[in-house]
Design brief:
This protein is α/β, with parallel strands linked by helices. The protein has two domains: about 325 residues, no CATH class; about 55 residues, no CATH class. The chain contains ten helices and 19 strands. The protein is globular and about 70 Å long.
């Protein structure tokens, strides 16, 4: 393919061009979208630290992981054991993606009027209108290369479409499982579309025991008027894994998008949320945190674009770094000229444990309207010495006292989740990670 391109191909794109092949069994629109994706990636290549939103993330390890198809999935028993260890017991329906592909034997999907839930591959065959939104998804310009590469190579994903006024009460769980693969890239692409007045909660868990793989996941969220979506993201990848995921959300009038993200595992982990409040009085809530140690790194990047009046945004992100780890939060809120009466607030609070850990925080406001209430804040510090002394004075060992204080610090963000069972599930995963942090 590179021979017909009329521009210089980036060196890192050559192996991907060599691996790219059109699937004659796919619809023509999807084949065209894939060709556009690989062409655009060949032109762009990887973003560098000169790209503002990528200045704190090391993409060099991805370049070392050549494109490869994942091997056949591991045995069902081994996969089920891993899923049982990380799954949310309170989930209603569940979709399992093993090495980027739908695993029907491990999934639990119920048929319900007005609700369609299934794999992206199945949606392309049976729900073409919903699946077309997969092709239309787009991340901000700085992340376009990963969007383009994902479009070219995505193997599967999930699609959730809920009709007008329908509420799905039990959380829907999506488990992304990597099964000990190495030197493979996993690309998944998904859509959540809620029509007017619909309501749902989804929890996505990314997990893997071992392997030096990298994951590139993209989700499109489309919320109609007064629709409400709560999304929870839990990342516990293998120790040497690279994880990059992005969500592109569009909110109609009075819609509500609430996202909580907890980054607990993986060598290089990046979560990006891009949301446009395209309707009057839409509301966006972004909460979460990251815990990194050793030489790991984690980034949380958000772009919230207020395009219409009376929008509201709340962001609270907590970060913890130990050892020689590096964490970063970059949050950008844009208020367009027509977005009068916007109410937007952003807060980043971070905790550094040790002299060699680093956390960067970069909150930003771009305001082009004059009748707004907007603020942002950031802090980076060590554990409260007085609080640590208070616990030690009551006979609590130093390691346990530090763990209690760190857990209390991150817990504030977790407490924003209304569902008590889901909140407890996340707290258990957090406690497990913090116990390893102290070892």
């Amino acid at each position: 393919m590179s021979a017909v391109l009329d521009f210089p191909v980036k060196p890192e794109a050559r192996d991907y061009l060599a691996c790219f092949a059109a699937d004659p069994n796919e619809p023509a629109w999807l084949g065209e979208r894939r060709r556009q994706g690989i062409t655009r990636f060949a032109e762009l290549g990887w973003p560098t630290r000169r790209n503002e939103s990528w200045r704190y993330f090391d993409v060099s390890r991805i370049d070392q992981m050549r494109p490869a198809k994942p091997p056949a999935a591991a045995g069902e028993d081994a996969a089920r054991k891993r899923i049982d260890a990380v799954a949310f017991a309170g989930a209603g329906q569940r979709i399992v993606l093993i090495d980027g592909r739908f695993a029907p034997a491990l999934s639990r999907i119920e048929s319900r009027p007005g609700v369609w839930l299934g794999s992206t591959a199945e949606a392309i065959r049976k729900q073409p209108e919903s699946a077309r939104a997969v092709a239309d998804t787009a991340l901000p310009h700085d992340s376009e290369a990963f969007d383009a590469l994902n479009a070219a190579f995505f193997s599967d994903g999930f699609v959730l479409h809920i009709g007008p006024g329908i509420a799905v009460e039990d959380p829907i769980e999506i488990v992304h499982l990597a099964t000990g693969i190495s030197e493979a890239s996993l690309h998944t692409r998904s859509v959540v579309a809620l029509d007017g007045g619909a309501r749902a909660t989804i929890i996505e868990t990314y997990t893997g025991d071992e392997g030096r793989y990298w994951r590139n996941d993209l989700l499109a969220v489309r919320l109609g008027e007064a629709a409400e979506l709560q999304r929870v993201v839990l990342v516990e990848e293998a120790a040497e894994a690279v994880h990059i995921d992005g969500v592109s959300a569009s909110l109609g009038a009075k819609a509500r998008f609430a996202e909580f993200v907890l980054l607990l595992g993986g060598r290089n982990v990046r979560h990006e949320t891009s949301a446009i409040l395209a309707g009057d009085a839409a509301r966006c809530e972004i909460d979460g945190g990251f815990v990194v140690s050793g030489r790991d790194e984690a980034n949380i990047v958000t772009t919230i674009d207020h395009a219409k009046p009376r929008g509201e945004t709340r962001e609270l992100v907590k970060g913890v770094a130990a050892g020689r780890a590096h964490g970063a939060f970059q949050g950008r809120i844009i208020v367009r000229p027509d977005a009068q009466k916007t109410d937007a607030h952003q807060l980043s609070r971070n905790l550094i444990l040790g002299e060699r850990a680093v956390i960067d925080t970069k909150p930003e406001l771009e305001i082009y309207a004059d009748d707004v209430k907007c603020s942002h804040g950031a802090s980076v510090g060590d554990l409260d010495a007085a609080a640590l002394f208070y616990l030690r004075a009551r006979g609590i060992p130093e390691a346990e006292a530090r763990r209690i204080l760190v857990e209390g610090f991150v817990r504030e963000a977790v407490e924003e989740i209304a569902d008590p069972d889901l909140r407890e599930h996340l707290l258990q995963r957090l406690q497990r990670r913090l116990a390893a942090l102290e070892e």
